[in-house]
Design goal:
The protein is mainly beta. It has one helix spanning about 5-10; strands spanning about 25-35, 35-50, 55-65, 65-75, 80-85. The protein has a 5-stranded antiparallel β-sheet, with no helix packed on it. About 10% of the residues lie in helices and about 45% in strands.
């Protein structure tokens, strides 16, 4: 077996929920401030997932104070406490960069029926 795959198998998370672009997620992220550590929630729409294995990342976009904020999270980061999928989005593409130009009701994504 390849040595790189062996190391990646040790660090890959197993408790990651199934989500894709268009889904609304809530990411609980550990933040260290000096000696203290707290968990901060970042809730928004997943606009992309990229790479695979331990290098996989996903980008979450939210509107905060009328300004779009995007954050890229490594999927297998030890700083991610948990990921909650709040809504499943019905989209036809894997990269939703067109949401950057949309505001208000035009930026809505239909919910997928399960």
């Amino acid at each position: 077996m390849d040595l790189i795959k062996l190391v990646e198998a040790q660090y890959k998370k197993t408790n990651v929920p199934d989500f894709s672009a268009g889904d609304t997620v809530s990411v609980y992220y550990k933040i260290k401030e000096g000696a203290k550590e707290r968990i901060q929630q970042f809730q928004g729409v997943v606009i992309q997932r990229r790479n695979s294995g331990t290098a996989e990342t996903f980008t979450v976009r939210k509107i905060s104070g009328g300004i779009g904020v995007e954050r890229i999270f490594p999927l297998n980061s030890p700083n991610i406490d948990k990921i909650d999928v709040l809504r499943r989005g019905k989209v036809r593409r894997a990269r939703l960069f067109y949401l950057r130009t949309k505001i208000g009701k035009k930026a809505r994504i239909k919910e997928r029926r399960i």
